[in-house]
Design brief:
With 699 residues, the protein is α/β, with parallel strands linked by helices. Helices cover 48% and strands 11% of the residues. This is ATP-dependent RNA helicase.
């Protein structure tokens, strides 16, 4: 009995299941108590965020620029830092280092730095932080407005914003024009950060009843001077009038111009001026090698073709002065089959096409992009090796921006400027003053492939192409004619018939405004010979007259950009079976004629046609009797690229490679709306083409 009781006691004591269950009960009771206690102690998320924000705010005053090398050295939110890290942005660039702190402190900033130096993040980081600090939500409406001069730049900025801001909760939208204003209007009020072009924004301000910017905290003007140069001065004035006075404004550009200063006066309050490369020896990136060649207008197409043939594995951008040049030469070069894919980007393309081209060129490793100046500013195509300026830029600033599409953020790049003999002196002087180190190089005549005959045969078989060639011709001449700087651009010095021939045109098309100009010299010739015996010279427009034209065109552009209708008087061409482009051409010419008539009192009808003048006939005949061997198109090996470099750099063909001495010594100074709550969803609403908004220079 005693034995049995003992063994029962021991069994009860040692039953492992029972004791485990007992322990488990006790343990889970303890755990749930702990959990409850922790829950009670845990602060709500909003409170934690508030404390973080107040810590950040306290740190703003302690920012020491000299101690900053990484983004994480700035007092930034975890969400922004994570976004930057995920996009592989760790070290700051100079402009970021110098401006982000000031912007965080709430100051207005005017920032200028060389192309490709990282200005986009210099304003996007403060943008994200500004809304984060205020714990902005979609119900707060529009908090930040970022205005870019071109649709492509706006789109690109928006993409960077999406990338670095993806951990934040606010919504971002892209408005760059579209037919369906109503569709955009329904969504615009949910946008916290709006990236846009000025014309479309103003249209919403004018027409979208519920759109307002009363809560706006920050305005960013990217490539500010370009916004003004494109004729958006009135639009900008109107936009700024619609914005609250109490706001922070950031203004960025790669060049400091009068336009930037004007805009700064208009929109900034006691700004901090940050010009990081002010004391730099050169105003262009150190990794950018820059050369120019001088060649006759009629040689330029062959020079370009020869260049492309010897750079088949490179990524290049070629800048032209007008859409119609791009349109024609793009087609012609595709037919010439240089052995590299060619793309075209200009303002007359449908917005969808513009986007496609943009993305295609971003993706390609070797390709050539024919573009107008819509691609000159801000666009960040990766790994561009060459920038060619087929037509002389209107000024040194435009040169800097165009050339800046290569050699971006520590990469190497090369820029080649093609100048006419009449443009060389003035342009090189301007570049010198702007601290741009360009060297003259010569074309290797043995490498020049003459394509004129091929162009002639293309045009003989294709009426549409011929008409494009004619439009290209007129458009180029008009672009020279409208250039402000008459020291560089003199339409009278252009070899008109030779130029027409080089485009494949047997006869130079009639350029009415030119004919009218040419009538004047005849008059002046008599007067001047009688009076002074000085050299006869065709009159060029005075600066005031050119300004008058510009103002007139800007006004017109501004109406178009706001979605204004054409006046009845311009519609006649369509009724006569003239294509829209021809009609525009005619329209432009008529505007110029009208202005000329007013300015100079010309009588257009009595002027002889250019191609009838004896001088032109002679030139035409001379040109035809020249040896014009047509090069056979061969598939060349890529080694040609190196060959071209050798020619250029080592002067192995006994040609001049003279560095501009003066320069060396100089110390002179989608369509549509994209709505993105950054962290959650992407709704891409690509709409149709927004009107015929063009820039004054037919970009
Ligand atoms: N901190 C950084 N670290 C690494 N890459 C950077 C950094 N900042 C910018 N970049 C890269 O440098 C390139 C140029 O930047 P961005 O386009 O902002 O230059 P930008 O100064 O605005 O040029 P532009 O004057 O031509 O508009 C981009 O490819 C960008 O991703």
């Amino acid at each position: 009995m005693g034995k049995a009781a003992d063994s029962r006691d021991a069994g009860a004591r040692l039953d492992p299941v029972q004791s485990f269950n007992r322990w488990k009960k006790k343990h889970s009771h303890k755990q749930s108590k702990k959990k409850q206690l922790r829950k009670q102690l845990k602060k709500p998320e909003w409170q934690v965020e508030r404390e973080t924000i107040s810590r950040l705010l306290q740190s703003y005053g302690k920012i020491n620029v000299n101690e900053i090398t990484r983004f994480s050295d700035f007092p930034l939110s975890k969400k922004t830092l994570k976004g930057l890290q995920e996009a592989q942005y760790r070290l700051v660039t100079e402009i970021q280092k110098q401006t982000i702190g000031l912007a965080l402190q709430g100051k207005d900033v005017l920032g200028a730095a060389k192309t490709g130096s990282g200005k986009t993040l210099a304003f996007l980081v403060p943008v994200l932080e500004a809304l984060y600090r205020l714990q902005w939500t979609s119900t707060d409406g529009l908090g930040v407005l970022i205005i870019s001069p071109t649709r492509e730049l706006a789109y690109q900025t928006f993409e960077v914003l999406r990338k670095v801001g993806k951990n934040h909760d606010f919504s971002a939208g892209l408005i760059i024009g579209g037919k369906d204003l109503k569709h955009e209007a329904e969504r615009i009020n949910n946008i916290n950060i709006l990236v846009c072009t000025p014309g479309r924004l103003l249209q919403h301000m004018d027409e979208t009843i519920c759109f307002h910017a009363t809560n706006l905290q920050m305005l960013v003007l990217d490539e500010a001077d370009r916004i003004l140069d494109m004729g958006f001065a009135d639009t900008m004035n109107a936009i700024i009038e619609n914005l609250p006075k109490k706001r922070q404004t950031l203004l960025f550009s790669a060049t400091q111009t009068k336009s930037v200063k004007d805009l700064a006066r208009l929109s900034l309050k006691n700004p901090e001026y940050v010009w990081v490369h002010e004391k730099a020896k050169y105003s262009t990136p150190a990794t950018l090698e820059q050369n120019y060649i001088v060649c006759e207008l009629q040689q330029k197409i062959s020079v370009l073709y020869s260049f492309l043939r010897s750079h088949l594995k490179k990524k290049s951008i070629v800048f032209f002065s007008s859409c119609k040049e791009v349109q024609y030469l793009y087609r012609v070069f595709c037919r010439l089959r240089p052995g590299i894919s060619i793309l075209a980007l200009h303002g007359r393309q449908q917005q969808m096409r513009r986007m496609e081209v943009y993305n295609e060129f971003v993706r390609k490793r070797a390709a050539v992009l024919f573009a107008t100046d819509i691609a000159a500013r801000g666009l960040d195509f990766p790994a561009v090796n060459w920038v060619l300026q087929f037509d002389c830029p209107e000024d040194a600033n435009t040169y800097i921006h165009r050339a800046g599409r290569t050699a971006r953020y520590k990469e190497d790049g090369e820029a080649l400027l093609i100048l006419l003999p009449s443009e060389e002196k003035g342009m090189v002087q301007q570049l010198l003053q702007k601290k741009v180190p360009v060297k003259e190089i010569k074309i290797n005549p043995e490498k020049l492939i003459d394509v004129q005959k091929k162009l002639e045969s293309f045009l003989a078989q294709d009426q549409d192409l011929k008409e494009r060639a004619q439009r290209c011709f007129v458009s180029y001449i008009r672009s020279v004619y409208l250039m402000k700087d008459k020291e560089i651009f003199d339409v009278n010095k252009l070899p008109i018939p030779e130029y027409a021939l080089s485009l494949g045109l047997a006869v130079a098309p009639r350029v009415r405004f030119l004919q009218k100009m040419q009538k004047q010299p005849a008059k002046e010739l008599v007067v001047s010979q009688d009076n002074k015996g000085s050299e006869p010279r065709a009159p060029s427009l005075t600066n005031d007259e050119v300004e008058e034209f510009r103002a007139y065109f800007n006004e017109k552009m501004s109406i178009l950009q706001k979605g204004g209708k054409r006046t009845e008087g311009t519609e006649f061409g369509l009724a006569n079976g003239i294509s829209a482009e021809e009609e525009e051409e005619k329209e432009d010419e008529e505007e110029i004629e009208e202005k000329l008539r007013k300015a100079k009192g010309y009588h257009p009808d009595s002027v002889p046609s250019i191609d009838e003048s004896p001088k032109n006939k002679e030139a035409f005949l001379q040109f035809l009797t020249r040896d014009g061997e047509e090069e056979e198109e061969e598939e060349e090996e890529d080694g040609l690229d190196a060959d071209f470099f050798t020619v250029k750099r080592h002067n192995v063909f006994g040609l001049d490679l003279k560095e501009n001495k003066a320069l060396q010594v100089s110390v002179l100074p989608v369509e549509g709306l994209l709505l993105v709550p950054i962290s959650f969803y992407v709704a891409l609403l690509l709409l149709g083409n927004y009107g015929k908004a063009r820039t004054r220079r037919n970009l």
